[in-house]
Every structure is written in structure tokens, then in C-alpha cells.
């Protein structure tokens, strides 16, 4: 169910302006994981990486995290 947690976190970040800004500011995976935990989401880091289907869009992530998490 880790993918469901990532998807729920991503969806919340799309509708919550403050969270959206904080997510864009994350430069490291551990920052993203800490932010997710702060908002009550339990995300497994392994589930973030390809070949899993990306749950975030480029607009949601910093350029650095986008390159790490959205590569094909």
C-alpha cells in the first residue's frame, strides 16, 4: 500500500498550497520523506523510484528530485 500513500500525498500537495510550496523546496529524498511524515503519510522510499509508476509531476518537485524520481 506504499504506492497508495505516495499517491495520496501527491494529491494532497496538489490541493494544499502550503504543502505544495514545501514539496517544491525539498532537494533531498529524506526531506520529502520527512515532509510526508509531518503530514501523516508513511512512504517507503523504495516505492518512489522507477520502474514504479511516478506519482508526482515535474511541477510538484524540485529539478533535482524530478531528475531522480521521474527518470524512465
Q: Indicate how many domains the architecture comprises.
A: 1
Helical content (DSSP H or I, runs of 4+)? 55-70%
What structural class should be given to the helix and strand makeup? Answer: mainly alpha
Q: What value does the Rg take, in angstroms?
A: 11 Å
**Tally the helices: what do you get?**
4
Taken in chain order, the helices and strands follow as HHHH
The major pleated sheet works out as: none
Kindly report the average pLDDT value: 92
| Straight-line N-to-C gap | 22 Å
Beta-sheet strand percentage?
under 5%
Count all strands and give the number: 0
The low-pLDDT segments are none
Instruction: Identify the overall geometry.
Output: globular
Domain Nif11: 1-48
Organism: Methylogaea oryzae
Protein name: Nif11 domain-containing protein
InterPro entries: CHP03798_Ocin, Nif11
How would you explain this protein's 3D organization?
The protein has one domain (2-69). The radius of gyration is 11 Å and the shape is globular. It has 4 helices and no strands. The protein has helices at residues 2-15, 17-25, 29-38, 63-69. Helix 1 (2-15) crosses helix 2 (17-25). The model has no long low-confidence stretch (mean pLDDT 92). The longest helix has 14 residues, at 2-15. The protein has 72 residues and is an all-alpha fold.
Notable characteristics:
Nif11; 56% helix; CHP03798_Ocin; Nif11 domain-containing protein; mainly alpha; 0% strand; 72 residues
Amino acid at each position: 500500500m506504499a504506492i497508495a500513500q505516495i499517491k495520496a500525498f501527491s494529491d494532497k500537495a496538489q490541493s494544499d498550497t502550503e504543502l505544495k510550496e514545501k514539496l517544491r523546496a525539498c532537494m533531498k529524498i529524506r526531506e520529502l520523506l520527512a515532509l510526508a511524515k509531518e503530514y501523516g503519510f508513511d512512504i517507503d522510499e523504495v516505492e518512489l523510484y522507477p520502474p514504479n509508476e511516478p506519482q508526482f509531476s515535474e511541477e510538484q518537485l524540485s529539478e533535482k528530485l524530478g531528475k531522480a524520481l521521474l527518470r524512465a
